[in-house]
Fold this protein.
Amino acid sequence: MGFASFELESEESPTKGKPPYFGMTGTQLNIWVTVACTTAMTLFGYDQGVFGGIIVTPDFLETMGNPGPDLQGTIVSLYDIGCFFGAISTFIFGETLGRKKTFMIGVVIMSIGAILQTCAFSVAQMIVARLITGVGNGINTATAPVWQSETSKPAWRGKLVIFEMIMNVAGFSLSNWMTYGFSFASGSIAWRFPIAFQLVFSFVLLSTVPWLPESPRWLLAHGHHDEGVRVLVALEGAHATSKDEYIVNQRDSILEAVRAEQENAPTWQDIMKGRTGGTGMIQRLLLGAGTQWMQQLVGINVTSYYLPLVLQNSVGLSNNLARLLAACNSVSYLFFSFFGLLLIEKAGRRKLMMWGAAGQCFCYILITGLLSHTNDPANGKTFGAGATAFFFLYYVFFGVCWQGVPWLYPTEINSLAMRTKGAALGTASNWISNYMVVQITPTGIANLGWRFYIIWAVFNALFVPLVWLVYPETANRHLEDIDRLYREERSIFVFRNKEATQVERPQRFIDADQERIDMIARTAREGSGIEETI
């Protein structure tokens, strides 16, 4: 079907029945896509934080047979193994199914897992339920950022994905206050209700995702040209038509990227052997996955999953005070995460990652030094209070700089054909490294004490030069700009390439877009002149 024929269909089809998306277009429609994606990430944050409060709940520990540190780590961390396999399944099937279908499958699986967790009466039941919940969450977290980035305008994309991660923090904060509030309840409701509350988020997702638009980039890449253009028009606003220069330019940019990818697309055998036809595919996959590995190795889930435990065992606080401070810290974490929303496009991805790693390294150095003196009979409490303050400051740096970028970067750095696979591989990397950190933390705190925190100071120190050397800037770029960069730039190191590291969009990409728009306009005028002559 030619473009002219689907132009007419795209403009006339809404009159043949009910308007799609309940008549919403433009900003309204973008808001509802964001509602769905942010709900998924809020659920992710809630689920990430809820077990930090449950693992120190007396009734839960009694029901589970009073597990020791190793078994506690296993119960908590096997959820991450489920998330890993969920993300890997998205890597395999997500591109075929599309963003929406994949998302819905993840929501259903996660809902089943939440119900099973709520009804668990033994360690075996809880582990199986945690694994199932993890599979669903792994699918959701691999899909939501891609769907969001592919339906967003370039100027909004970074801010919206960062906003998703702010809502992830909101979910984490909610779970801390939920478990703190229910810690005053007696019996199993103290931990079963906070787990069951996950189903509220599932209800929101099941009520919104089915009627929202599929990614226009996925539709165009898979030959659904008519629907892809209609979605581009709907996302632009009621004033837009399929003939607008901006819509035509968007469509052509996406199709050009698809064509270039198909012409150079290597097989999986070629990828494994490093033959990627000059697309930089392996390098880009590794960079995207690397941001997720780094996010875990900066030490966030040493405290996200176990902050009450850390404050009890490392600092020496009471159960109630440890829970309260963890909940208060989550509010501070949420507040400072909004600064990331303000800085993500102005400072760019590279600077935020470098600033954050440097600040987090500083915090862990001081936490290590202060905790090493908490056994001092005279000033132990003072040193413990100082360490607690730097745990709070650590969350400030992480919330501003590292909370959102690792989830955004894989959706931007990878090519269109590899974007789902790249995001899924990045998410899988997050979960397997998350599993490693969560599994070793209880044992590490019990056996190494304050020395355990030296590990995370060292990792943060290493990541500053690593980002500076090899990570290109993706802020203020169209997703197709990154494809051009890698077709032309073959070096692993980017720190000497101004275009690869500057925050502003390179001028030649802007000029190329303008030339394309001018050419389309000239072609339209010439076509109009021929019609008038006839």
